[in-house]
Amino acid sequence: MRKPSSPTLFDSFLEKSANRLLGRRRERSLILLGVFIFFPFLLFLNMTGCSKADPRFELDELYLLKLEKYLAPLSPPQKANLEAVLIDLYGTPNEPTLPTSPSFDFLSLEDLKMAAGAVSSTEEGHSHGLYRQHCADCHGLSGDGKGPRALVIDPYPRDYRQGIFKFKSTLRDQKPTHDDLKRIVEFGIPGTAMPSFRLLPENEKDRLVDYVIYLSIRGETERQLAEYIIDELEEGELLLDKAKGKGSPEVLEAKEIIDEIAEEIALSWKEAADYPISVSPSPLKQFTGEEREAKRLEMVLAGQTLFRTETANCTKCHGVMAMGNGESQDYNDWEKAYFDILSPDSGKEYLDAGAFPPRKANPRNLRRGVFRGGYKPEDIYRRIHQGIAGTPMPSVIIKPENAPDSIQGLTEYDIWCLVEYVRNLPYEEESQGVRNGPLPPQIK
Fold first, then answer.
1. CB of 127 within 8 A of CB of 207?
2. For residues 318, 175, 170 and 330, what is the CA-based torsion angle, rounded to 10 degrees?
3. What count of other Cβ atoms lies within 10 Å of the Cβ of residue 135?
4. Taking 70 as the threshold, does the pLDDT of residue 438 lie above it?
5. Helix 249-270 with 202-232: angle, nearest 10 deg
6. How far apart are CA 340 and CA 347, in angstroms?
7. How far is residue 287 CA from its own chain's centroid?
8. Which of 55, 392, 393, 424 could form a disulfide with 387 if both were Cys (CB 3.0 to 4.6 A apart)?
9. pTM to 2 decimal places
């Protein structure tokens, strides 16, 4: 009988390989078992907010640092007391609240609670945690514009706490309306990372808008209360010292001041629709057919001339060819709040405290046909009339139609000529190869 041959090197290699393969399979099986058993449990904990302590709104440390630099610091007890006051007023990310003042009655606390908290849904299909599901990844839990993705996005996401919003139908120094913000939610902002949420149900869009307004009011309240502490209180004195007794004169006076500050901010939102940008009818509306086209071309040529004059001064930023390559090297207000644009080394303490590196405000290349504030003629009219809040784009001085040329400013007809010129730019021969894809149907 033939004896089995001794194992060869090849046999040993096969045996070792098989053992390694079986070992890896056992490891993978254990990993998969762990994933299927524990991942749903961890996901459940995260969605219900039980995975860790309830989240909190972070204080605006950059603004407090700025106050410390130019005015005076808040002591740790003062910061803790300020945070407690804000919780009394507005609650937490999981449990929002609102002051009972009529100034806040334009917001629905029920809707805020649907938008707040961890992501979940009821058996009836009602979604909770809308803000964290759709917005916090960029705008952050506190609305500070510092979500996990924010640093790699250009432009940076909006910091709601400053109360400054770019694209709106109201005057430059006024808040946007609910409809203004809903339009951004619905259509997004072309040319940016802000996507469209058009497919969301209407009530969910409204809840997101209310929550953004809520975060903005809370943020502005925090800033104004911090300023009040520094300007009006003694060093180390608490804003609301409950240890003095609930009905003490000091506590009652402090509550009155706190409520007054919060109500004034809320009213600026509630009454925003009372301050619309007045948009005069387009001169083209009185023409039809060939006459309308002839008038439009006349206005385009007039707009081109105005665009390049010192009166409109558009070329300073947008360049002679409107390609966004003017001489201006300016920054947005939120950068200039912490950085001296004339000193490259300024603001190191803010960078160390978490500020994002400043970026220049890049003027729009108008030949691309991408208008972030909207494509409609009325949208562009508003941008020229009132500029863009928080940016170097200025508003214009409006003068009567029959005013002499020596009077500074633009007439409403001048603005409409600029509108038609801007709308025509993407179709000019010089714009070939510059546009990003086909022109939007809204401006054809």
1. no
2. -10
3. 23
4. no
5. 140
6. 7
7. 40
8. 393
9. 0.85
Determine phi and psi for 333, rounding to 5 degrees: -60, -35
* Cα gap 204→425, rounded to integer Å: 37
Quote the distance between the C-alpha of residue 368 and its chain's center: 23
Question: What six digits make up the tokens of 118?
Answer: 């961890």
List b or e across 82-112, with b for residues whose CB sees 16 or more CB atoms inside 10 angstroms. beebbeebbbebeebebbeeebbebbeeebb
Set out the domains of the chain in order of their start, with CATH numbers. 61-274 (no CATH), 283-328+363-443 (1.10.760)
The Cα 279–Cα 381 span in angstroms is 7
- How far is the C-alpha of 191 from the C-alpha of 365, rounded, in Å? 11
> CA 416, 417, 420, 421: dihedral to nearest 10 degrees?
-140
* DSSP β-bridge partners for residue 121: 127
- pLDDT of 332-356, one tens digit each? 999 999 998 888 678 999 999 999 9
**DSSP string covering 78-147:** HHHHHHHHHHHHHB-SSSB---SSGGGTTS-HHHHHHHSSSSEE-TT--EE-HHHHHTHHHH-TTSSS--
C-alpha distance from residue 346 to each of 64, 66, 162, 339, 343 (Å): 17, 13, 21, 6, 6
**Residue spans of alpha helices (H) in 328-429:** 333-336, 348-352, 377-386, 412-424
Q: What pLDDT is attached to residue 113?
A: 97
What is the distance between the terminal CA atoms of the chain, rounded to a whole angstrom? Answer: 93
Question: What is the DSSP-derived secondary structure letter of residue 443?
Answer: G
Q: What is the radius of gyration, based on Cα positions, of the chain?
A: 29
Decide: 311 and 411 in contact? Cβ < 8 Å.
Answer: no
Q: What is d(CA 72, CA 275) in angstroms, rounded to the nearest whole number? A: 36
DSSP-derived letter for residue 337 is T
Backbone angles phi, psi at 72, to 5 degrees: -165, 155
Q: Which residues pair with 410 in a beta bridge?
A: 398
Instruction: Dig out the tokens for 287 from the structure.
Output: 């023409």
Mean pLDDT of the chain: 88
294 vs 339: CA distance, rounded Å: 49
**How many other CB atoms are found less than 10 A from the CB of residue 132?**
20
- For 225-268, write each residue's pLDDT tens digit: 999 999 999 999 999 999 999 899 999 999 999 999 999 999 99
Specify the pLDDT at position 110: 96
According to DSSP, residue 54 is labeled: P
Distance (Å, whole) CA 296 – CA 427:
14
